[in-house]
Amino acid sequence: MEPFVVGISGASCSGKTLVAKNLADKLEGREHTIIQMDSYYRDLGNMKFEARSRANFDIPDAIDFNLLINDVKGLLEGREVLIPEYNFKTHTRESLSEGRLRRISVKNTRRSVIIIEGLHVLLKEPLRELIDICVFIDTGMNVCLSRRIERDRRERGRTRTEICRQFSDTVVPMYEKYVLPARKYADIIVDGEKAVEESAREIMSEFKNRISD
Questions:
Q1: What are the structural domains of the chain?
Q2: What's the rounded Cα separation, in Å, for the pair 38 and 26?
């Protein structure tokens, strides 16, 4: 009777976070938590800031998969876990002493739901094995770039030139190399250019089918 796990993957700014939040709103009183894979970026505090800024954040090695998988297993076992807090402006993890880590837990029951969203959620088999429904959000690169420019300028203080350069140099190539091929593991593929509400409804329908089996 472990919690039910939904994994949501897709390109950068494909709509993963919004779909995850909208899905959570539809869970009809079920206890739930959302885990963002971005929280598990490796700490680059040992590097000079210029080097950190040039790092490739779209490769799988940028993510601490071992920690993420251990935390998901902990939640499935009914334990409380500490989710890292990543600072995208400094490319470092906030320290425990600053009280920035998020404590989460869910009841060890099938009525509880864990939603994991991120670029490489479907890439690694040990993580996929913990997921009950694998979702891929299919969104055109032009749409993703437009959304990323808006987000990074607003939330991360980056210029349009910086954003476009990073998108062409690393985001698109790594999407084609790692993210898109993992689409084959998806149980359901939703259109990231449709309304978020519609995508969440499609996932919710699959969720209800699985729960009733």
A1: 4-212 (3.40.50.300)
A2: 23
